[in-house]
Amino acid sequence: MAGVLLVTGAGRGIGAAIARLGSARGWRVAVNYGRSRDAAEALVAGIKAAGGEAAAFAADVGDSAAVTAMFTEVDRALGPVTALINNAGVIGPVTRTEAMDDPQALAALYAVNVFGMFYCSREAIRRMSRRRGGPGGVIVNISSVAARHGGLPQEVAYASSKGAVDSFTTGLAREVAPDGIRVVGLRPGLTDTDINDDHIGGKSVLDAVAPSIPIGRIGRPEEIAEAALFLLSDAASYMTATTIDVSGGR
């Protein structure tokens, strides 16, 4: 199965790795970004240089109208989306709960991690649903093992947002299965990405955490991408309403 793949938050890290591998597997790739314009455009240029088809689309996924407009632009540039990776995410406020006095920071976290997933899935379903004349499709929601273990210290808010991702995946999958749409989730563990470098103190901290991971190391974005592309593939055609861990056993 290949068609048009939209990856949200694809300018860097896991999203960029998914976009690159998706192109290599034959997908026409829509690269969504919020602020990482230069990185997204460089990614698209690299995909094109390798013989793939891709385009970059700016949109704040936490803005419903912006998401609707982005999907319309993707329709025009690449065709209707047949696979969606809801990857865009932020860490949000890193603090103990009793010190969380910034409601705007909490709202911004949920806007991207939760509301954005709703908005993008809504638009994808409108295009994919066989009940609406579409071809069917796949939605993969990128969660986190933090949803299961509660997150790193002072990241309870982030963990709770990823718990919402898991619930959404299960419920939506059952809702749209009759429409020919599979919905699956993917929980990465600690992965060597810029977002972790920015928020937990860089590679020295990641290296310090590595011994607590049963497999003994931090994950690579490319390893998460392989799992994501498996979930999109026909090899996973009997999988829906489930979320898999790619976490080194953490």
From TrEMBL:
UniProt KW keywords: Oxidoreductase
Residue ranges of every copy of the Ketoreductase domain listed in the record: 3-193
The organism's place on the tree of life at top rank: Bacteria
Family annotation (CDD domains): SDR_c
Keyword Oxidoreductase: yes
Signal peptide range: none
InterPro entries in the record: KR_dom, NAD(P)-bd_dom_sf, Sc_DH/Rdtase_CS, SDR_fam
SUPFAM superfamilies, per database record: NAD(P)-binding Rossmann-fold domains
GO molecular function: oxidoreductase activity
Metal-binding is among the record's keywords: no
Family statement drawn from the similarity comment of this UniProt entry: Belongs to the short-chain dehydrogenases/reductases (SDR) family.
Protein name: NAD(P)-dependent oxidoreductase
Protein species of origin: Inquilinus limosus
Lineage: Bacteria, Pseudomonadati, Pseudomonadota, Alphaproteobacteria, Rhodospirillales
